[in-house]
Amino acid sequence: STEIPSYVTKCPSNGLCSRLPPDCMTCNTNYSCIYGKPATFDCKVKPHVHCVDQNNQEQENFTINMTCQFCWQLATTDYVCTNSTSCMTVSCPRQRYNATCTVRDNVHCLGNRVFPKMLYCNWTGGYKWSTALALSITLGGFGADRFYLGQWREGLGKLFSFGGLGIWTLIDVLLIGVGYVGPADGSLYI
C-alpha cells in the first residue's frame, strides 16, 4: 500500500494546473529571469496530484507565469509572520525582532517559502492615545494619565506633587500629545 503525502490535502482535484498552490507542483528555477519582470516557468505536478488544462484534459507538465522575485522580496501582504509581544515598540532606536514568515498558498515565488525576517516591534496592549491625552489634560495634575499608561511610579510622583505644581502636567500633555510617552508595557497606542 502506498501512503498518500500530506501535501495532497492542499491540492484541489481536477482543477486547472496553472491555479494549483506551489506545494502541489515542482518548477524548474529560471535563474535567467529579470527581477520584477514577468517570467515563464516550466512545472510538473507532484505525485498523486491530478489537474487539467483549459480543454479539461489531464496534464502533468505545464507552464506558469509569475513575477521574477524571491519569496523574501514579496510585498508584506503576500506572507504571514510570527508576532512578538516581548519587545518594546516605544524605544529609541526602534527595536526589531526575528520573525519566521510563511508565503501564502496562492503566491508563487523563487526560493524558500518559509524564511526569517527582521521586523520592527509593532503590537498594542489596548491603550488609546486619545484617552491618555484626555486624562493628561483633565486629570494630569493627579497623575491619572500615568496611572492609565501603567506608569504607577510616575503617577504617584505627580499625585503627591500636584503635577509638579502644574509644570509636570503641562510637559506631560505635550509629551503624550506628540506620542513620546507611551504605555509602560512598550506597546503602541491603538
Automatic annotation (TrEMBL):
Entry's transmembrane regions: 159-181
Entry keywords, A to Z: Glycoprotein, Membrane, Signal, Transmembrane, Transmembrane helix
Domain TM2 span(s) in chain numbering: 126-173
Domain of life: Eukaryota
One Gene Ontology cellular component: membrane
Cellular compartment(s): Membrane
Pfam families xref list: TM2
Membrane topology, record value: Multi-pass membrane protein
Protein name: TM2 domain-containing protein 3
Family the UniProt entry places it in: Belongs to the TM2 family.
Entry keyword annotation includes Transmembrane: yes
